[in-house]
Write a structure and sequence with these properties.
Keywords: GTP-binding, Hydrolase, Membrane, Nucleotide-binding, Signal, Transmembrane, Transmembrane helix. The protein is α/β, with parallel strands linked by helices and about 600 residues long. About 55% of the residues lie in helices and about 10% in strands.
Length: about 600
C-alpha cells in the first residue's frame, strides 16, 4: 500500500515538472500578450504570447486593429490573414466583448521591406466602450497599441464620431512628442502609421479622404466649451500629421453579419472582396520594421520594449505621454550622467574653485548636448532634462566637497612643512638673517605655488601670521645670540692665537673684539644699545657675508671646515717648522731665555 502511494506521488510530480517545462508546440493560433488585471483598470503581460514573439530573430513589425467593441475587428484581422473564424481570432456576436486585452497571431507573415526580411505580427485589441470597463482601461489599451504597432488600423463602423476623435488624444500627444523630431537620424522612434478604416456601404458622393477631412475640421465654439476646444486641438494636430495617416473605406461583406463566419468568398459582396484585396496591399505598403533607438527590434527586444511601455502606462491613475517619455529617456539620462561623472572624475583635485566651476560647466554642457541629440520627446523631455541637471548638480556637490577636503589636506601638509622649517631656522648653529629670510621666502613661494583650492585663502592668512611671528621671534633672539656667539668666538680665538698657532696678531684681534663687546655693554648698561652702533652693524654685515651665501653655508659646513682647518694647523705646527723653519709664521712668541741667539762656545 505504501509503495503504491509513493508511486502515485512520483507520477504526479513528474507530470507537474513535464507540464511546467513544456513550451508551445503549435504557434498557428492566437495568443494573449496583454491581459486585464482583476480590477479591469490596468494591464499585465501574458507569457504565452510573449513566447510566441520572443522566438523571432528577424526584425519585427506589428499591425494592430483598434475600435469600438462589436465593430468587426477580429473578423477584419482574419480576413487580412486569410484565416477562417475557426482557426483565426475568436469572433463574437454577443453584447460582451470576445477579446480581452491584446492578442497576437502566433505565426507572423514573412515579408521583404526595403531589402530587410521582416516578421509581421497582427494584433487584436479589446474593443472600446464595452460593458463593465472604465475609460482609463480603454485608454491604456489604445496607448499600448499605438506605441507597439507600426500600423494602427482605426476600425470605425459607418462614420467618425466626436468620441472617436477624442480617443486619439494620446496618439496625438505621442506624435507631437516623437514623430519627426529626429527624422533622418538613426535614433528616431516614430509612432504607428494611422489608417482610418471606415466600414460603410455608401459615402454619399464623398471619398473617404473627404469624409475624414470633414470630421477633422474645426467645430465652432462660440460658448467657449472646454471639451470642444480640446477636440479642436486634437483636430489641428491630426491635420498636421497628415503625412503619417491615411484613410480607406470598406463596404460591408454581407447583410447577414452574424453569419459571416459561415460564408465563403463567393458568398460575400464582390465589391467587398475587391476592396479587401486593396486593403491588404495598402497595409503591406505602409508596414515598416519597428525601430527604437536606432536599431530594428527582434523578438526578445520587442518583448523587452513592450515590458518597458506597459510599466510606464500602468503608472499613475491615467496613462500619460510624459511617463512614456521618461521610460525612453531613462537609459539616455543614465548615459549622459555617466559621461558627466567620467569627465569630472578625470580632474586632478584639488584645483582652484573657478577652474573647477569652468570644468563643471564644460562637462555639463557636453552631457546636455549629448542628451539633446539623443533624447525622446519634445515637451515632456524637459522634465528629464531638468532631472539630469539636478543629478549633475548633486554629483558636482560631491566633487566640491572632495575638492575642499583635498585642498585642506594639501594646504595643511604645506603649512606643517613650513612650520617645521621655521622651527629648524630658529635653532641655527650659526644664526644668520640671510639664511632665515631665504628659508622664509622659499617656504612662502612653495606654499603659493602648491597650495590650491578653496582652502588656500584661509591657509594663506594662517601661514602669513605664522611666518610673521617666526621672523619676529628670530629677530628678537638674533642679536643676543650673535652677541653671545661673538664673545665666545673672541675668547676661543685668544686661546688659539696664544697657545695653538702662537700668532700674536690673531690673539690681539680677538682681545680687541672681546674688550669692545664687554666694555661697550658695561659703559652703556645694556647689550641692546650696542645693536644701534655703526660698528655693530659692520660686524653684522661681515658676519652675514662670511656665514651664509648662495655658494657656502657655514651653518652646514662649519664643523667639517673647522676640522680641516685644525688638521691643517696641526700639520703646519708640527711638521712645517722642521721643514721650513719658523720664519714663515712671523711674528711668533719667542720662549728662549737670555735674549741671545749666539751659539754656545766650547
Amino acid at each position: 500500500m505504501e509503495i503504491s502511494y509513493w508511486i502515485f506521488v512520483f507520477s504526479i510530480l513528474l507530470v507537474f515538472l513535464v507540464s511546467g517545462s513544456s513550451s508551445i508546440d503549435n504557434f498557428h493560433q492566437p495568443f494573449p500578450i496583454v491581459e486585464p488585471d482583476p480590477g479591469h483598470t490596468k494591464l499585465r503581460l501574458s507569457r504565452e504570447g510573449l513566447e510566441a514573439i520572443s522566438r523571432i530573430t528577424t526584425p519585427i513589425s506589428a499591425v494592430a486593429v483598434i475600435g469600438p467593441y462589436r465593430s468587426g475587428k477580429s473578423f477584419l484581422l482574419n480576413q487580412l490573414l486569410s484565416l477562417s473564424c475557426d482557426e483565426g481570432f475568436g469572433v463574437g456576436h454577443m453584447r460582451d466583448t470576445k477579446t480581452k486585452g491584446i492578442w497576437v497571431w502566433g505565426t507572423p507573415l514573412e515579408v521583404d521591406i526595403d531589402g530587410v526580411r521582416t516578421s509581421v505580427f497582427y494584433l487584436d485589441t479589446e474593443g472600446f466602450e464595452s460593458v463593465g470597463k472604465s475609460n482609463v482601461y480603454d485608454d491604456r489599451i489604445f496607448a499600448l497599441a499605438t506605441v507597439m504597432s507600426s500600423v494602427l488600423i482605426y476600425n470605425l463602423p459607418e462614420t467618425i464620431r466626436e468620441a472617436d476623435i477624442s480617443r486619439l488624444s494620446f496618439a496625438v500627444e505621442l506624435a507631437e512628442e516623437f514623430y519627426g523630431r529626429v527624422k533622418g537620424q538613426d535614433i528616431a522612434f516614430e509612432p504607428a502609421k494611422l489608417l482610418w478604416l471606415i466600414q460603410r456601404d455608401f459615402l454619399q458622393g464623398k471619398s473617404v479622404k473627404e469624409m475624414v477631412d470633414e470630421a477633422l475640421r474645426h467645430v465652432p465654439n462660440s460658448d467657449g466649451d472646454k471639451n470642444i476646444d480640446q477636440v479642436n486641438q486634437i483636430r489641428d494636430s491630426l491635420a498636421v500629421m497628415g503625412d503619417n495617416s491615411t484613410a480607406f473605406s470598406l463596404p460591408q461583406p454581407h447583410l447577414m453579419r452574424t453569419k459571416l463566419c459561415d460564408l465563403k468568398d463567393d458568398d460575400l459582396d464582390p465589391m467587398y472582396v475587391k476592396k479587401r484585396g486593396q486593403l491588404k496591399e495598402l497595409v503591406a505598403s505602409i508596414i515598416r520594421p519597428k525601430i527604437v533607438q536606432g536599431k530594428y527590434l527582434n523578438g526578445k527586444e520587442f518583448v523587452s520594449f513592450l515590458e518597458q511601455i506597459l510599466d510606464a502606462l500602468n503608472k499613475g491613475e491615467i496613462p500619460s505621454t510624459g511617463s512614456l517619455v521618461e521610460v525612453f529617456n531613462k537609459g539616455i539620462l543614465e548615459r549622459c550622467l555617466k559621461l558627466y561623472s567620467e569627465r569630472m572624475g578625470k580632474l586632478r583635485l584639488p584645483m582652484p574653485e573657478q577652474s573647477l566651476q569652468d570644468a563643471h560647466e564644460r562637462s555639463r554642457e557636453e552631457a546636455m548636448k549629448a542628451f539633446e541629440e539623443q533624447h525622446f520627446g519634445r515637451h515632456h523631455a524637459k522634465k528629464s532634462a531638468d532631472q539630469l541637471d539636478e543629478e549633475m548638480k548633486e554629483v558636482f556637490k560631491n566633487v566640491i566637497m572632495t575638492n575642499e577636503y583635498q585642498s585642506t589636506r594639501l594646504c595643511e601638509a604645506l603649512y606643517t612643512q613650513c612650520e617645521d622649517r621655521m622651527d629648524q631656522l630658529q635653532v641655527l648653529r650659526l644664526p644668520t638673517m640671510a639664511k632665515f629670510d631665504a628659508g622664509l621666502q622659499q617656504c612662502n613661494q612653495s606654499f603659493e605655488q602648491e597650495c590650491v583650492g578653496p582652502s588656500k585663502a584661509n591657509y594663506e592668512q594662517r601661514i602669513m601670521k605664522m611666518l610673521g611671528k617666526s621672523r619676529s621671534l628670530f629677530i628678537k633672539e638674533y642679536n643676543q645670540r650673535l652677541f653671545n656667539w661673538l664673545v665666545a668666538f673672541s675668547l676661543v680665538m685668544v686661546v688659539i692665537g696664544r697657545f695653538i698657532i702662537k700668532f700674536i696678531l690673531v690673539e690681539m684681534a680677538a682681545w680687541i673684539l672681546f674688550i669692545f663687546l664687554e666694555t661697550y655693554t658695561r659703559m652703556f648698561w645694556s647689550a641692546e644699545s650696542l645693536y644701534y652702533n655703526p660698528v655693530w652693524h659692520f660686524i653684522v654685515s661681515a658676519w652675514e657675508t662670511i656665514v651664509y651665501s648662495p655658494i657656502l653655508d657655514l651653518d652646514r659646513w662649519a664643523i667639517p671646515i673647522a676640522c680641516m682647518a685644525a688638521l691643517g694647523i696641526l700639520y703646519c705646527r708640527c711638521y712645517g717648522r722642521r721643514k721650513h723653519g719658523s720664519q714663515w709664521l712671523l711674528p711668533l712668541y719667542n720662549h728662549q731665555k737670555g735674549g741671545s741667539n749666539r751659539p754656545r762656545s766650547d
